[in-house]
Amino acid sequence: MPDRAGKLADVVLGFDQSDQYFAEPTPPFFGAIVGRYGNRIAKGQFSLDGKQYSLAKNNPPNHLHGGDKGFDKVLWAIATKETPEGASAIFSRASPDGEEGYPGNLAARVTYTLTDKNELIVEYHATTDKPTVVNLTQPQLLQSRR
């Protein structure tokens, strides 16, 4: 993006190669999308439709940011798209039923659009085939779409 003088510069913190994001020791969370649930789930469990679900307690005694293998620890598929608004990078992944203890198959998508006005628009989208908890952007309960 342009700096104060209008000179284009890379201003994003990150790595040049995707394998660097998975290196040991754990790298910083550059560009991370947490999930399925960003923040803590108390005592690593929740109840939904009368059923109790137990999750990894990776932040004892709580569950944090999707568990031991949250969305920040997997490689997402990527596509690009040009629109009249600007250029977009679209990241998507399928989280299978039972992953990290969560119910339902979840299709997640995050779209980053850099507009011709130098605006960054971030859009989150998720669908599921069962009631589940997810908050890619904010706490909410997704109902299945059948």
Account of the protein in words:
By secondary structure, this protein is an all-beta fold. The chain is built from no helices and 10 strands. It is globular.
Coarse morphology: globular
Determine the mean pLDDT.
Answer: 86
Radius of gyration: 17 Å
Q: Trace the largest sheet across and list its strands.
A: 5-6-7-8
Amount of beta strand = 35-45%
Give the count of helical stretches. Answer: 0
Low-confidence parts:
138-146
What is the oligomer described by this structure?
A: single chain
Largest sheet: 4 strands, antiparallel
DSSP E strands, number? 10
Helix-strand string: EEEEEEEEEE
- Structural class determined from secondary elements: mainly beta
At a glance:
The chain has 146 residues and is mainly β. 0% of the residues lie in helices and 36% in strands.
Spell out the blueprint of helices and strands.
Blueprint: E1 40-41, E2 45-48, E3 51-54, E4 63-64, E5 77-82, E6 86-95, E7 106-115, E8 120-128, E9 132-134, E10 140-142
Antiparallel strand pairs: 1-4, 2-3, 5-6, 6-7, 7-8, 9-10
Record keyword descriptors for this entry.
single chain; 146 residues; two-stranded antiparallel sheet; globular
